[in-house]
């Protein structure tokens, strides 16, 4: 797997907005809630991680 871009969003809505824009521009994207606890076994260009950091 060769990921070109890794992104961290402060909440689910922001992560979804970003992932949607990346997909619309031709990227293969996975969105996760929190840090993945295992490897993603699919071909991806980008991973968007949604955190609950807005309240901090």
Tell me about this structure.
- The longest helix is centred in the N-terminal third of the chain and has 13 residues, at 12-24.
- The radius of gyration is 11 Å and the shape is flat.
- The protein is built from one helix and three strands; from the N terminus they run E-H-E-E.
- A three-stranded parallel beta sheet has the order 1-3-2, covered by helices on one side.
- It is an alpha/beta fold.
- The chain has one domain (5-50).
Topology overview:
Layout: E1 5-9, H1 12-24, E2 29-33, E3 46-50
Parallel strand pairs: 1-3, 2-3
Can you tell me the overall shape? flat
% residues in beta strands: 25-35%
Let me know the largest β-sheet. 3 strands, parallel
Strand numbers in spatial order across the main sheet = 1-3-2
Computed structural class = alpha/beta
- Return Rg in Å: 11 Å
Put simply, the count of helices is 1
Measured as a percent range, the helix fraction is 10-25%
The number of domains is: 1
H/E element order? EHEE
Distance between the termini: 33 Å
Poorly predicted parts: none
The averaged pLDDT comes out at: 90
- Count the beta strands: 3
Structure characteristics:
alpha/beta; 27% strand; 56 residues; three-stranded parallel β-sheet; single chain
What's the short story on this structure?
By secondary structure, the chain is an alpha/beta fold. It contains one helix and three strands, in the order E-H-E-E. The protein has one domain (5-50).
């Amino acid at each position: 797997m060769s990921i070109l871009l890794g992104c961290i969003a402060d909440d689910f809505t922001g992560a979804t907005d970003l992932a949607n824009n990346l997909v619309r521009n031709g990227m293969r994207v996975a969105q996760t809630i929190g840090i993945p606890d295992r490897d993603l076994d699919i071909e991806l260009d980008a991973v968007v991680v949604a955190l609950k950091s807005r309240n901090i």
